[in-house]
Amino acid sequence: MIQTSEPIEALWVFLKGQVTIHVDRGSGPRKVMEWGAGDISGVLPYSRMRTSPGVAAALEDTEAFELHEKYFPELIRECYHVTAACVHAMIDRARLFTSTDLHDEKMQSLGRLAAGLAHELNNPASAAARSAAALGTHLSESDRAARDLGAAGLDAAQQAAVDALQIPTGAPPPPLSPLEQSDREEAIADWLVDHGADAAAAPVLARGPASIPALDRLATLIDRQTLAIALRYVAAQSEARVLTAEIERAASRVSDLVAAVKRFTYLDQAAVPKPVDVGAGLYDTLAMLGSKAKAKSVSMSLSVHPNLPTVSGFGGELNQVWMNLIDNAIDAAPRQGHVTVTATCENRSIVVRVVDDGPGIPDEIRPRIFDTFFTTKPPGEGTGLGLDIARRLVFRHKGDLDVASEPGRTEFRVTLPPR
Which long-range contacts does 127-130 make (Cβ < 8 Å, 24+ apart)? Predict the structure, then answer.
C-alpha cells in the first residue's frame, strides 16, 4: 500500500493482479483509477509527479516490473516505443485526473450553492408561512368588523372618511425612520385612548395614511360607538393588506432566487458555446453567496459597465469561476470587511476584478496558490482545486487569471476576449 503524498521514484508495469488508487479531496476517498495486467503506472518519463496523489492498494496478489527513475535517460535513448507508450499512459492519466478534479470541484461548488440557496430560501419561505398563518386570523376579524360596520349604515361621506385611513392595496409603508415611526404610533395610540377605541390598532394604523387630522375628521362624522367599530374595521383590513403584501414580497424573492439558480447553472441550455452575459452571471453569483457574506458580516458590491460586451463560451463554467473567486474573497475578508466585484472594458477585453480587504496572500505561498491540491484552509474545508479549476476554465475561454496581493487588498483579475 502507498499512502497519500508518499514519494514515488519508479515506473511499474503490472504483470498480474489489480491495483486501485483512492483520492480524498475533502469529501471522502473516491476511486479515481484502476490498473491490471499490462498497465503502466508510477513515475513516467517526462512526468512531473513526485508523490502519490492518493492511497494506492493492491486488491489481490499482484506482480509488477519496477524500473527506477534513474534509468529513464537510458530508457528514453534506447527504447523509443516503450517511452512512447509511457508518454501516452501519462497523457491518459493526466486527462482522467483532470476530469475527476473538475467533477470534484463542481460537486464542491454545488454544495456551496445548495447551502447558500437553502439559507436564502429559508428567510422568505418562513416569512410567507408566518404571514399566511396570521392572515387567516385577520381575515376572520375583517369579516366580522365589516359586518358590524355595514350594520351601522354609514353614508357616503362617512364611508369615504373610513376608507381614507386604510392602507392602499400594494402600497409601500411611508419611508419613516424607526424613531419617526415610534412617535407616530405613540401619537395615534394616545388619540385612540382619548376616543375610547382600542389602542392595539395603533401600530397598523401608523403604517398607513392615518393621521391625527384624518382621525379627527372621522370622529366628527360618526358617534363614539360607531367610531370604535370603524377603527376596528380599518385595522383588520389594513393588517390583512400588510400581510398580503408581505406574502407577495416573500414569494417574489423565492421566485427571483429560483430564476437566479436557473440562470447560474444554465440547466436548460445545451452544452455548446453561446453568448454569455458576464454581468448577469456575477449578479447571480452574489445572490447565491449572499447568505455566507451576511453570516460573516461582509458587505459585497457589484459594478458592471453598462455596455459590457458578451463572451462566447459556457455560462455555467464562467459562473463556476466567479463562484470560486468570490467565495474565496469572502473567506479572506475580515468580519465587517468588504468584497468588491467589478466588470469593465479595458483595451478591447472584458476585465472582471474580485477584490477583498483581507490580510493578503503571504509572499512565500503566492507562487503556489494555483497548484493542484494546494490550500491554506483547514482539512475538510478546502480541496485545493478551486483556483486551479478556475484558471483552467478561464484558459478554456482564451482568457487569463492573475492575482495581485498586499496586506489589506487582494485582487484576482480575469481577462476575457469579447465575442
Answer: 127/246, 127/249, 127/250, 128/246, 128/247, 128/250, 128/251, 128/254
By CB atoms closer than 10 A (0-12, 13-18, 19+), residue 218 is buried
Residue 339, CA distances (Å) to 82, 120, 188, 216, 289 in order: 53, 19, 44, 52, 12
With a cut of 70, say whether residue 263 has pLDDT above it.
no
Sheet holding 29-36, edge to edge: 29-36, 18-24, 55-58
**pLDDT, greater one: 30 or 76:** 76
- CB 407: neighbour CB atoms within 10 A? 11
Give the containing element (helix H, strand E) for 72: helix 72-78
CA within 13 Å, CB half, 358 = 22
pLDDT tens, position by position, 99-138: 666 666 566 666 666 666 676 777 778 888 888 888 888 7
Helix (H, G, I), strand (E, B) or coil at 83: helix
State the average pLDDT for the chain. 82
Which DSSP string corresponds to 167-207? PPTTPPPP---HHHHHHHHHHHHHHHHHTT--GGGHHHHHT
- Provide the grid cell at 229: 367599530
Asked if residues 387 and 30 have their Cβ atoms less than 8 Å apart, the reply is no
- Asked if residues 203 and 272 have their Cβ atoms less than 8 Å apart, the reply is no
Q: Cα angle at 268 between 267 and 270, to 5 degrees?
A: 95
**What does the alpha-carbon distance between residue 90 and residue 82 come to, in Å, rounded to a whole number?**
12
**Cβ-contact 11, 79 below 8 angstroms:** no
Q: Decide: 90 and 34 in contact? Cβ < 8 Å.
A: no
- Closest C-alpha to 218, from 149, 160, 168: 160
pTM of the predicted protein model: 0.51
Q: Distance between CA atoms of 34 and 57, rounded to whole angstroms?
A: 10
Segment 259-284 mean pLDDT: 75
Domains of the chain, earliest start first: 10-108 (2.60.120.10), 119-256 (no CATH), 266-416 (3.30.565.10)
What confidence tens digit (pLDDT) does each residue in 205-245 have? 888 788 888 888 888 898 888 888 888 888 888 888 888 88
- Parallel, antiparallel, or unpaired for β 338-346 and 299-304? parallel
